[in-house]
Amino acid sequence: MLAMVLRSPRAIQISVHVVRAFAHLRSAARANEQVMKQLEQLEDRVGKHDADIAALLRAMRQLIGPAKTPSRGIGFLADIK
Known about the structure:
By secondary structure, the chain is mainly alpha-helical. Helix content is 70%, strand content 0%. The radius of gyration is 22 Å and the shape is flat. The two termini are 41 Å apart.
C-alpha cells in the first residue's frame, strides 16, 4: 500500500482510509445479497398466487441490481493532424 512506500503519517492515514472503504463496500455487497435472498423467498411464497405481486418483485429486483451505465474510456481525444 501507499504507507509501505512513502512511510509518512499522511500515507498511513490514506492506507487506513482505503482499507475502511473496501470493508464498507464488502458489507454493502453482503447487505445487497441478503435483500436479494429475501426477495427470492418472498417471490417463492406469493409468486404463485398473484401475477401483480410477481411483477412488483421483478421491478424491485431491477432497481436493486447493478446500474447499467456505459463505461467511458480513460484519457482524452486529441485532434492530431
